[in-house]
Amino acid sequence: MTDDNRRGLPAPPPLGAAALPPGTYAGQVVLVTGGGTGLGKAIAAEFARLGADLVIASRRAEQLKAAREELAAVPGAGRVTAAVCDIRDPERVAEVFDAAQAALGLPDVLVNNAAANFPSPAEDLSPNAWRGGHHADRHVVHDP
Fold it and tell me: What is the C-alpha separation between 36 and 43, in angstroms, rounded?
């Protein structure tokens, strides 16, 4: 018996197993900021596997195009669209939501993954740089 089982927790799933059944997010729209690369793209890929329609947003059009094509090819994926967006521009963020609603419907899930990266020792970052790099990628909003 593992320590987790003694605490009343279920055993973890086998390595590589999905946590949710296919189709869990079918018919739902998920918007992922920073969805063109890295963790954001991986998060978007998991929502795609679960059947979601996706809007991925990122600052670089060329990365978005490649990510959109990859995500559209994920088995089980719904529709996938992409929008160039710098989350520091509130007007552009509003435009992305408007475009998402027009193309797929108002997002049911928002994953705020985008962040600014500053290759610098933490002690050299200004408070604003710290907030930009570490606050923006800590929130997921889901409206059931």
Answer: 10
